[in-house]
Design a protein that fits this description.
A hairpin with an 8-residue loop joins strand 5 and strand 6. It contains no helices and twelve strands. With 171 residues, it is an all-beta fold. The protein is rod-shaped.
Length: 171
């Protein structure tokens, strides 16, 4: 029997990228490196087939403002949502001179060049004579990914003393 057969060939195409197993770690601190240990990514095709892939790319920085990374394989992208916590900033505040007179105001607080960018200022506390810890508050420029922090620096407040008082009258 000789007959005619029509054969239609379909190109197998990638249609979907699915995270079939989450990575071991899903909770991060802001700016921490993503760890893909334990993740399983499956590529699904238009013919109903699928396969687990390992040569996928991960992009995206771990941030509170965008708590996900992108998983990319062969032109398709899916996202993995993460829990991302704020972190404490790195700050090393200092003053040029920690000795002041009782009649002065507190000295200007400075940050080192590699510190987290932000604003630092003294809290509202009265100045008293002697060595004492005075508190400050730091507010980061990036308040989404960094916590505000409080700290203290020691100042020595000196009393004003009069060593000699002279009364001069004009003749």
């Amino acid at each position: 029997v000789i007959g005619e057969v029509t054969l239609t060939v379909y190109e197998v195409k990638l249609t979907e990228l699915v995270i079939t197993k989450n990575p071991t770690k899903l909770v991060y601190n802001a700016f921490e490196e993503f760890d893909k240990t334990g993740i399983e990514v499956t590529a699904k095709y238009n013919d109903g087939s699928s396969k687990v892939v390992t040569d996928f790319n991960v992009t995206g920085e771990v941030l509170v403002s965008s708590p996900y990374v992108k998983i990319e394989y062969d032109g398709l992208i899916t996202q993995l949502e993460l829990t991302v916590n704020k972190i404490n900033p790195t700050i090393n505040p200092f003053v040029e001179n920690n000795q002041i007179f009782i009649s002065s105001k507190k000295p200007t607080l400075y940050l080192e060049s590699l510190d987290t960018p932000g604003v630092i200022d003294w809290n509202n506390e009265p100045i008293v004579v002697g060595k004492k810890q005075y508190s400050y508050t730091f507010i980061p420029s990036d308040q989404v990914n960094y916590n505000s922090v409080k700290g203290t620096l020691e100042l020595e407040v000196l009393a004003l003393s009069i060593s000699r008082l002279e009364l001069v009258t004009n003749p």
